[in-house]
Inverse folding.
């Protein structure tokens, strides 16, 4: 089973890229972020034509998350994190094929200091609290999406340039480490500990061509699911397609079919 995450940076404006990627790679379950679309404009029919069911949590112009499945029904369990009622569509959770899928788009937090960074830290606190409950429930779960967190210096080109950025400052990296301490496994890094892996390249200064990127899109696996991890990677070439998102899809492969 392949589970993927993709910040599409506008689901309608980049629909040809999304559909091409889905058709070429056929992931079983997909988490999408940054839809930038109200619910009524989500391209359900085009996605269904490729064999995917979908649930989505949209928002005009900003944010937005969705879960797609071609391996069975999507049973939505949560829309928004506990304690969050601020109109920002950043978290969607559903059970699919015996796996609990948490699709998230964590706030960027820039500029800092300021209210945007304070909001990011508060959102992270709610995520950590909910993630702790999922670990305690011992369910096969994955938290997948754009975390807007660079976990370590190995996850960014020229880390010295990011020391004051909200994606990289110490409280944010410490929160990611706290998530791992709870028992969540960083799938990509666990299988590729020494590799240079990026998932985002800015549109400016030829960042993609120079491979001056960041790793901010993550798939975090609860212990029961981490035992099934077989492979993980980034569909890097998608970033180079015409009118591509500034993110590339990330994915994992799991042993077996439905979780027990």
């Amino acid at each position: 089973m392949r589970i993927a995450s993709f910040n599409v940076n506008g689901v309608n404006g980049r629909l040809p890229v999304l559909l091409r990627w889905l058709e070429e790679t056929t992931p079983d379950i997909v988490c999408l972020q940054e839809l930038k679309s109200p619910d009524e404009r989500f391209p359900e029919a085009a996605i269904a034509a490729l064999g995917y069911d979908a649930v989505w949590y949209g928002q005009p112009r900003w944010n937005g998350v969705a879960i797609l499945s071609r391996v069975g029904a999507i049973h939505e369990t949560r829309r928004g994190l506990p304690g969050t009622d601020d109109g920002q569509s950043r978290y969607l959770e559903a059970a699919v094929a015996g796996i609990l899928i948490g699709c998230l788009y964590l706030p960027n937090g820039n500029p800092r200091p300021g209210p945007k960074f304070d909001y990011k830290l508060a959102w992270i606190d709610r995520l950590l609290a909910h993630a702790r409950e999922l670990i305690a429930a011992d369910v096969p779960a994955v938290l997948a999406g754009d975390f807007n967190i660079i976990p370590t210096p190995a996850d960014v080109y020229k880390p010295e340039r990011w020391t004051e950025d909200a994606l990289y400052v110490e409280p944010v990296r410490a929160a990611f480490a706290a998530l791992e301490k709870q028992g969540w496994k960083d799938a990509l890094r666990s299988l590729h500990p020494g590799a240079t892996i990026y998932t985002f390249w800015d549109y400016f200064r030829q960042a993609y061509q120079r491979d001056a990127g960041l790793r901010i899109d993550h798939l975090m696996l609860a212990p029961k699911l981490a035992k099934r991890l077989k492979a993980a990677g980034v569909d890097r070439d998608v970033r180079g397609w015409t009118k591509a998102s500034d993110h590339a899809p990330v994915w994992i492969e799991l042993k077996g079919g439905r979780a027990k």
In short: Residues 8 and 149 are 17 Å apart (CA to CA). The radius of gyration is 17 Å. Helices lie at 15-25, 44-48, 115-137, 170-182, 187-191, 207-210, 223-226.
